[in-house]
Amino acid sequence: MLRIAVPNKGSLSGPAAEMLHEAGYQQRRESKELRIVDPENEVEFFYLRPRDIAIYVSSGRLDIGITGRDLLIDSGANAEEILPLGFARSTFRFATKPGTANGVGDLAGMTVATSYEGIVAKHLADKGVDASVVHLDGAVETAIELGVAEVIADVVETGTSLRNAGLEVFGEPIMKSEAIVIRRTGADGDEPKVQQFLRRLQGVLVARTYVMMDYDCRVEQLEKAVALTPGLESPTVSPLHNEGWVAVRAMVPAKEAQRIMDDLYDIGARAILTTAIHACRL
Ligand SMILES: Nc1ncnc2c1ncn2[C@@H]1O[C@H](COP(=O)(O)OP(=O)(O)OP(=O)(O)O)[C@@H](O)[C@H]1O
Ligand SMILES: O=P(O)(O)OC[C@H]1O[C@H](OP(=O)(O)OP(=O)(O)O)[C@H](O)[C@@H]1O
Ligand SMILES: [Mg+2]
Fold first, then answer.
1. What total number of domains does the chain contain?
2. Tens-digit pLDDT profile for residues 90-137
3. How far apart, in whole angstroms, are the C-alpha atoms of residue 264 and residue 62?
């Protein structure tokens, strides 16, 4: 049975459960459940604190886990990223009151408050900056107002929390994060159950980012049309009953679908349809 760690709370937990559900796995019915078995898929899910997931996975007791890239790096655990999942995207940044600092080089002698001590201490050491780091569990934006630190380093998504606290980011982004799948560093990557799990999640990612496009076009326009819709491998082209016409079918990125439909129309394609993909194995 494959043993998988899933975030039990916070920004990662809802979208992770949703993705697993879309991939055909049973998920817990109520938020107090700490583990469930999905016998049909031979998987056991453990609902753990996002911050602890890399530690459990690095111990080898759980095969894989879903966590944030920033949490993995912050933990220093012996685990590695094997698949980015595209949700809980954020940037990790320094911020402070305007006029305090413009770059990491200005932080010498200052105190930085953060929930991600591992990332911050390493970044300061890499830049050769001698600053103190104070660990806070959350709501770090308030640390400056209350005099616990001159600077904070925190997760930024929309920037609303910083704006509300009268703070501004400065310096280069420290890292970009998103939800990821991890396994113990150097674990057997060919394990069929792990591969099947990854293929299912990849299927969900593809179904979310692509649509299926169908259209008819004249044979003379086929090369131009195929250049607009190259598909993942190559489009399917079938003859139509009307001579001189073909039907084309290809996957296209959902975000570009409307522009591609306009371009296809302009070169004479007709009956252009897009349909959602519910599931897929590449
Ligand atoms: N506002 C946000 N937008 C996107 N991702 C976020 C946001 N806040 C936290 N994350 C991501 O969520 C992960 C942290 O999850 P964690 O559950 O520890 O904190 P949280 O989501 O802030 O929840 P809480 O603070 O309620 O415990 C990290 O990978 C982080 O980058
Ligand atoms: O840029 P934004 O869209 O405002 O998002 C970033 C904020 O979201 C998270 O806070 P959360 O609400 O989880 O509280 P916390 O600080 O207690 O973790 C993070 O720690 C930032 O404070
Ligand atoms: Mg938080």
1. 3
2. 999 999 999 999 999 999 999 999 999 999 999 999 999 999 999 999
3. 49
Q: What is the per-residue pLDDT across 223-282, written as a single tens digit (0 to 9) for each?
A: 999 999 999 999 999 999 999 999 999 999 999 999 999 999 999 999 999 999 999 998
CATH code, domain carrying 243: 3.30.70.120
According to DSSP, the residues that pair with 154 across neighbouring strands are: 93
Q: How far is the CA of 150 from the centre of ligand 2 (A)?
A: 19
What's the ipTM?
A: 0.96
Which backbone phi and psi does 214 adopt, to 5 degrees? -125, 140
In this prediction the pTM is 0.93
Q: Are 48 and 168 in contact (CB under 8 A)?
A: no
Q: What does the alpha-carbon distance between residue 167 and residue 143 come to, in Å, rounded to a whole number?
A: 11
Q: State the distance from the centre of ligand 2 to the C-alpha of 230, rounded, in angstroms.
A: 41
Q: List all residues 6 or more positions away from 111 whose beta carbon is below 8 Å from its beta carbon.
A: 131, 132, 133, 134, 148, 149, 150, 151
11 CA: nearest ligand 2 atom:
13
Q: What CATH number does residue 97 fall under?
A: 3.40.190.10
Domain end point (choices 138, 153, 187): 187
Q: Are residues 170 and 104 in the same domain?
A: yes
Q: Domain containing 121: what range?
A: 90-177
Q: Same domain for 165 and 220? A: no
CB contact at 8 A, 27 and 20? yes
Residue nearest to atom 13 of ligand 1 (CA): 68
- Last residue of a domain, which of 154, 187, 220? 187
**Identity (one letter) of the amino acid at 130?**
D
State the ligand closest to the CA atom of 68. 1
